[in-house]
């Protein structure tokens, strides 16, 4: 038990020390934060997550063959132009930082397939993002987006879009151009209506609109590719109709019966649960 407490205290002290050293721009202090990172790793991956970094270590840009770069959970708010040298980069994680705008240098990394931008302070995305035509997964959750930027509709190979926990009211009609999009995650937004554009995207497999303000759902039975729809925590009056084999997660899903039609409930109330009266020609005649 004592060892566990000591380890926990050491971990806490280590984080505090990193946070203090992060303010000191000397090379020695930066080496302490980065650890033993003098040559490019054999696996062509650099993980600098949770290092309390306030500026990007420039010597990482010399690793020209780098494929994966993780900078999550730091204090970064900008990136140097030298990052453009990493033209083989396929995965870039910038989530849990302090970016108020996406650094344009990111848009020069044309081999990117996965881009993590969640948990920042982004209010928009630059038009230059359209240069990332190999992008297949984009994480935008937990930012300050009041609208989904139109430039997202130009990412023709996008397969997965995470845009939950923002302040989205609608989705752009141009989203239907993304014929490769298979899953869209929109939980925790401000959608008052089910986004109409999603009704015209037959290749979607997963739709997540959990924790919004949707009161009524249209039928989704015409979407042939749909496999899962998540609609829980909405003030809805009905469950979305889906084709056979599609899983629903939410009120009145497979686990519980859907509410009956108002006309059926009305008939039941009129008879108080008793058998309805027989028509005159079927009633027993007196002897």
From TrEMBL:
The UniProt record lists the keyword Repeat: yes
Transmembrane segments: none
Record keyword Glycoprotein present: no
Gene Ontology annotations for the cellular component aspect, listed alphabetically: cytoplasm
Domain of life: Eukaryota
Keyword terms: Leucine-rich repeat, Repeat
Region span, Disordered: 246-287
Compositionally biased tracts (Basic and acidic residues): 251-268
Pfam families per the UniProt record, alphabetical: LRR_1 (PF00560)
Biased composition (Pro residues): 276-287
Cited PROSITE patterns: LRR
SUPFAM superfamilies reported for this sequence: L domain-like
Name of the protein in its database record: Leucine-rich repeat-containing protein 10
Source organism of this protein record: Mauremys mutica (yellowpond turtle)
